[in-house]
Amino acid sequence: MDAFLAQLWIARWPLFDGFLMTLGISVGAIVFGTILGCIVGIQLVFAPLWLRFPFRIYVDLMRGTPLLVLILAAFYVPAVLGLSLSAAQAGTLALGLFAGAHIGELVRGSLQAIPPGQIEAGRSIGLTFPQILANVLLPQALRTSLPPWINTGVELIKGSSLLSMIGVGELLLKTQEVIGRNFMTIQFYVFAGILYLVVNIALDMLGKSMERRLGARL
Amino acid sequence: MNYTLHFGAVWASFDHLLSGLAIGLALAVAAVAVGTVIGLLSAFASVSRSRLLRGISGTYVLLIRNIPLLVLVLLVYFALPATGIRLDKYESFIGSLALYAGAYLTEVFRAGLLSVPKGIVEAGRAIGLTRMQTNISVVMPVMLRNSLPSLGNTFIGMFKDSSIAAAIAIPELTFEARKINVDTFRVVETWTVASGLYIAACFTIAALLRMLERRFPKF
What we know:
The structure holds 2 protein chains of 2 kinds. By secondary structure, chain A is mainly α.
């Protein structure tokens, strides 16, 4: 244990950097994914059929492909198309696109759960469709999708560990580098696991308490 | 942007991709099979009267669901040998994926267990079955049928997660795709074909599951 603590002290800054990188990438991906997901969700419900179709394909594509394949594709493909993205940017892009599809489905589900009478009521008091969306539908839909949205956040933090495979210096890759130096395999993998656990369980509990609060109000 | 598509390089190694797909499916089948046993035990524990069993099951689910699968895979593959347990990469990956699947299946079966009507359990007890017999011949069939859709979704999820086996050099679809990618540099084609294969497999499995669900009417 003493030997581990000594090694942990030596490795504190790389691990801290990796931890921040993990958080930064996850936050970037959830912000991008949320904006994308709201657009996708609205289109999936209200867009005309011909426009709904490409969004449906996007969602099914993202949900049918493993996250690792998306990450590898986002890492290799932009370069040949003349875009130069860093590994971290490519990884965040992949995670964000993945999250966008999942959040899109969440928003679609919540929007469809709202009784259609409310849209008609909004229209009959003279609101335009964007007004109905902004004042009637979205406030309710976003509230019901909040708990599963937090779940998506947990999935993204877990998913960000896959970026170690394209060389992004997040927590897992830094851990592997540290292990490569001191060969304390069990100790440092368990340590990384605990860090992930702490963040994810905290988020999980936040989601559960929100669910309870929302459940009480609905 | 001067990039012309040449799928030829990918078709030349298409059999590798197909064998990779088969390995991925086999890994998922094995992991879900083992995971079902873990999940059943853990689900029964989670609804049992014993506080200890409930605690164990709850902790297991909480731990596994909040750790990235890749960390679990690397821990089992690289760290277990230090404790004297030596597994080859297939065994260790199936073991990790089964542990992972077990946690998700605990939730699936738990929901299934809670959906079993109380009346039929009491009916089983009333005709003189022991608690164990009631669980096996009354509760289990109904519960398994009711959890079939979520079981199927978990299977598809695990099949997609089998891509992570590429991290420990198991030659499944993602590993083969990455190899073709770096061998030929037909980047766009490789990943299009690889993700096409994954999507086709997922949709086929989903369709088969829906057929299966129709065969057995919901209780």
